Amino acid sequence: MKEDIRAPLIIQTNKRATELQVENGCYEKKQDRCMVYLSTFVAVCGSFAFGSCAGYSSPTQSAIREDLNLSIAEFSLFGSILTFGAMIGAITSGPIADYIGRKGAMRMSSAFCVAGWLAIYFAQGALSLDIGRLATGYGMGVFSYVVPVFIAEIAPRDLRGALTTINQLMICCGVSVAFIIGTMLTWRTLALTGLIPCAILLFGLFIIPESPRWLAKIGHQKEFELALHRLRGKDADISEEAAEIKDYIETLEKLPKVNVFDLFQRRYSSSLIVGVGLMVFQQFGGINGICFYTGSIFESSGFPSDIGTIIYAIIQVPITALGALLIDRAGRKPLLLVSGTGLVIGCILTGISFYLEGHEIATKAAPILAVTGILVYIGSFSVGMGAVPWVVMSEIYPINIKGAAGSLATLVNWFGAWACSYTFNFLMTWNSFGTFMLYAAVNALSILFVIKIVPETKGRTLEQIQAAINSS
């Protein structure tokens, strides 16, 4: 009888902790992943709050300027100060998440967003608006780092990519919802809606566990095992996963504490190049310039801006969801390569449309070519380059440098967002065709970077990823 029970055992490689194991002749239950899903849902409420902040200024511009009698320069400061707040948040996000935990960092970020939204709601002039916008920007900067890191640290390896990609999906949802309901609500009421995801997050953080890897890192052994049990299910055997995490933490404890300058040591160079490089290519490929000025791009090419913007807002959500479904099946590198190829094609099509428009060649085809190029660009970005760099960043850094390295990568990302959005209008004034050819060249370089430098992390534990990077 015991032989019959033992017969269907499946031998698996690379020491992976199986969902179905046999102990003392009896099958264990499968891992209960409800807490993983709940924890992910709570965390990505921060991502939705991120998107709400990013999408707020576009539909409210005329109403805020009219009600508060703001000049174009004053409203431009209100819009752009968000990225400066996010850069400050990016600089401090890693150390904060390492010091008070992933949940503590999300609580603090939510508090800044709540304070910022209330300042905007009660604003009677430009100063209060700017203070509120700076505070929500700071919250965005922290969220942009800590949410994908938290999800990557709690998720089983076979779900890690998909769950981490939900971060980008919820950012897109937040932006799209702000665009849509911003046309129906007053700007003050729209600011109050930004409080909703923050409230859900703050309440949910009382229910979900802290990151087991962070608890292990700070030496809280009982809390570490309890958190891992809650995430994997009370009947799951966590011994192998717990041992792997603890062995890795013990190895890291032997390494010296690091700061930003220590990141440039040879031992961390591979991880640093991959994480920062992906952020550089993500932003300098043109996304924020194209995103912020989609309406003006369509107008310049002769396509109705309102129709084009609505199509843009609708298309990015399902395609980002598609990327989330594919990332753990196809892998990180294939999605990045497909995405990069689409970005090059989208830039070339849009650039050609401006060339035709400027030289009065095929004037009827130019607007169609422009909207096709922009939609190909947005769709390609959403399926890969939008989310995957954040997933890879959350996976490749050793936990002893994750705070400092994550802060650096996030800072580079936000600096690129500011630089791209700031220079876009100047570049378009210089040469519209040349602008999109420049972006096409950057995206072509990103393809080479992914092929040569970026490792595939699908199906590996965080500890196995580190071992592979270090051996290479």
UniProtKB/TrEMBL annotation:
SUPFAM superfamilies: MFS general substrate transporter. It is a multi-pass membrane protein. The chain crosses the membrane at residues 36-57, 77-97, 109-129, 135-154, 166-184, 190-208, 272-295, 307-327, 334-356, 368-392, 404-424, 436-454. Residues 39-458 form the Major facilitator superfamily (MFS) profile domain. CDD domains: MFS_GLUT6_8_Class3_like (cd17358). Its main location: membrane. The keyword Transmembrane applies. It is found in: Membrane. Keywords: Membrane, Sugar transport, Transmembrane, Transmembrane helix, Transport. One of its GO terms (molecular function) is sugar transmembrane transporter activity. GO terms for cellular component: membrane. Belongs to the major facilitator superfamily. Sugar transporter (TC 2.A.1.1) family. Belongs to the major facilitator superfamily. Phosphate:H(+) symporter (TC 2.A.1.9) family. This is Major facilitator superfamily (MFS) profile domain-containing protein.
